[in-house]
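INFO  loader      accepted 1 record
INFO  loader      residues=119
INFO  predictor   begin
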Amino acid sequence: MTPGTKCTVHLNLHKKRQGLPHWSVTVGGRVVANVTDIVLVDAVPVVSDATFKRIKASKNQARQVYAKVRGFIAAPGTVGNGVEVHCNPHRCRDFTLPDGSVWSGSKVAEFHNDGFFTC
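INFO  predictor   done
INFO  writer      dumping tokens
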């Protein structure tokens, strides 16, 4: 994947349970790769309100992708501040920081193999 490419990234829980690379990278509406690590610059959250409401209303515990991060693939060596960002539809609609505040985007977002990302 070429630095500067606009993409979205989301956590693929099925791949994670299987021990496979679990960050799905989407370019132009199509998943182009599943990776263990990726860094985005100018990262912003993309949350589907309709899918979130469907998850909350459903008794079915099947996981659905309702939140992604959009940005540009960073050049090698780009690092962020290391603040954890989490997303759990059963706690909050949005991505949240450790203090509970809503994450609205950052200059850098690092996705690592541990299942959450940092900004």
